Amino acid sequence: MTPDASDGPGAPSEAGAGAERPLRADARRNRARVLAAADAVFAAKGTGASTEEVAREAGVGIGTVFRHFPTKEALLTAVLVDRLRRLAEDAEAQAGAADPGAVFFAFFARVVEQGRTKNAFTDVLHEAGVDVTAATAEYGKRVRAAVAELLARAQRAGAVREDVGVAELLALMAGVSRAAERAASDGEVRAKALAIVFDGLRPRP
Amino acid sequence: MTPDASDGPGAPSEAGAGAERPLRADARRNRARVLAAADAVFAAKGTGASTEEVAREAGVGIGTVFRHFPTKEALLTAVLVDRLRRLAEDAEAQAGAADPGAVFFAFFARVVEQGRTKNAFTDVLHEAGVDVTAATAEYGKRVRAAVAELLARAQRAGAVREDVGVAELLALMAGVSRAAERAASDGEVRAKALAIVFDGLRPRP
Amino acid sequence: MTPDASDGPGAPSEAGAGAERPLRADARRNRARVLAAADAVFAAKGTGASTEEVAREAGVGIGTVFRHFPTKEALLTAVLVDRLRRLAEDAEAQAGAADPGAVFFAFFARVVEQGRTKNAFTDVLHEAGVDVTAATAEYGKRVRAAVAELLARAQRAGAVREDVGVAELLALMAGVSRAAERAASDGEVRAKALAIVFDGLRPRP
Amino acid sequence: MTPDASDGPGAPSEAGAGAERPLRADARRNRARVLAAADAVFAAKGTGASTEEVAREAGVGIGTVFRHFPTKEALLTAVLVDRLRRLAEDAEAQAGAADPGAVFFAFFARVVEQGRTKNAFTDVLHEAGVDVTAATAEYGKRVRAAVAELLARAQRAGAVREDVGVAELLALMAGVSRAAERAASDGEVRAKALAIVFDGLRPRP
DNA sequence: CATGAATGAGGCTTCATTCAT
DNA sequence: CATGAATGAAGCCTCATTCAT
């Protein structure tokens, strides 16, 4: 793992900076298609899936994948960062909503439900709690902050125990997501496991 | 991936069948060494580790590995089965102990703690809950039964909610193990996450 | 990089055809820049250097390189031809000078010294002696003629043995250049090796 | 160029040490075949030739090449070392012969003649003079020593100028070999070029 | 039985060349 | 005309698996 395998400071289109050339229209389209394909393929078959399969899924040549992501590791990192970004945006979108308790548990459940199919999404959650690489650090922080906000509001509303911290919350989200993913076929088991964790999170009466 | 690439129902020496020759003494020794090495290597580096590394760790030639486990998948399955066996034996050993509640939670905690270093152990737990392959089915059932017994006793003793089933329990064990594994460096986070789940498992006062 | 990367005689205008349009001003400028960049890059990193690197060094797009030189081989040939042209011009410039002996040896030394940094220049010299391709043939002949003239004058002045021909002279220039290039760090070794060859070229007393 | 791309301290069979396992009979045979094939292929097509072609020429699978030489660079280095070894042995074999002058010039001529087809042999000679890598250092020294001995004896016998050193001698051998290689088709040119250098090496009358 | 050499399919990556913008 | 994105063949290397020793 080279330390600098990132795709640069975020996708060109979203880095506020602007130093990166804006990328031609078709190039941007292809980059997005490759990223989406990579997300799907790696989710379905694990990170061991071949780059060639990503290319095939994206409907582009193998060279195109490597033009946008010069390394397989860079591609994996980009997928990770993208997931973190979506997660952060999702959490941020809930920040102002009413009924913080309901919002908090709904967010938790949604994360778990998504993680069920998006396999490695759970690993992403871990990143948010630990901030491993420089590339993911930025978005990891954002996720952490947004989730912390949801948690704090839910606690203030008396819906969640006061002694719960973000770290263990993220760890639990990741863990339950992974568990849910395995028990994929049985929705009831998933629901019950989630209910148990939710009960554990609520204040003791 | 053939679903049934196992080495047979467990090591030849323990299958009820009996048609399998009993294996020479040195052969048995080698099989055990390979299995132990595989467990260690796959735990440390993931299932992507090379067969050759397993052979090196075991101190045998590569040919020996393939003589005992004709496929890498067979080797992985054998490791899985072995883990399930140890897990079942561990649970079975607690069956008669006093204070079923304490025993139950201690077992849960021990599983999580082991899973922390034995990475894929968590995946094993899933197998126990789902019984994917024919190979793991037997030991999966045994684990399930042993854990069910521990759970039932704890419930009878009033230490665990009545509406918790084995399926979600195993799922939670797997999930928390995974969470613990990620938060490897932070023991406090691990403890808190575990406490939350334990609280969720206890009867509402 | 190269002092004289002009487009001059060597531009498309020399293909017997003559139907080639005279090239727009900016196009001519770009062609020269690409050629100079290619000379520098191939000299520094060998002919294995990528076309893209040439484009970068020239400050143009990759498409521009291929517009002017439809093939990498065409680009290499153009560099070769350009070097031959400069070599010929250098030799021709000395044709009328006084003290033909000194001029001859100075020219030899200069070629070797240039070849030391301009790596493949030595290969160029060979081309001059052998006229491999049709493309280099013309300038190869010119170099040969110019060097032959320098040699003849030196021989007439009694500074060089009568039995030395152009062919072996060019071969020696190429060889010593190559040797010098390897012994790059040790100027004294280079000087001594050159002195030995020079002594071999002088008439026996 | 990783510093440690060597094949180890020489081919196992020839390192006096003996710590390296002796290599099975068939393995040794294959290693030799690969090395010979590599020598031939790289000589004929340059170091850019593909490893696959070496394998084909050797009549082995691609994996076999990489088993013996874990990197293309390692393979190239091994070829280099082997050439140096043969060169050293050749020179050492002449050490005791009568008529040191004749022996010296014959050796020089033979080196050049071999270098003519063995393209990169010339580059090898350079290594002998410079000792670039640790891998070639050992044999480079041996070549240097053996050639120095031949030179010293020739000088003592009055056949070679006193002021010639090994460094420039090796440089000249490399250079003339390269020149000869280019003038491949014309034996007379080669002979004349060699004669000129020989004259330069002889004492002035 | 144990060993490790041989094998070759498959993965990642580079790069000359083409073509839409 | 200039640009740079797209393409895919080809190269290096890894690794599961087979088989002679």
TrEMBL record, chains A, B, C, D:
The ranges the UniProt entry gives for DNA binding are 50-69
The record's listing under Pfam families reads: TetR_C_43, TetR_N
Q: Which PROSITE patterns match?
A: HTH_TETR_2
Q: Which SUPFAM superfamilies match?
A: Homeodomain-like (SSF46689), Tetracyclin repressor-like, C-terminal domain (SSF48498)
For the HTH tetR-type domain, which residue ranges apply?
28-87
Biased composition annotated in UniProt, kind: Low complexity = 1-20
Ranges where the record places region Disordered: 1-23
Q: Which molecular function terms from Gene Ontology are attached?
A: DNA-binding transcription factor activity; transcription cis-regulatory region binding
Q: Could you list this entry's UniProt keywords, alphabetically sorted.
A: DNA-binding, Transcription, Transcription regulation
- This protein's name: TetR/AcrR family transcriptional regulator
| Gene source species | Sphaerisporangium album
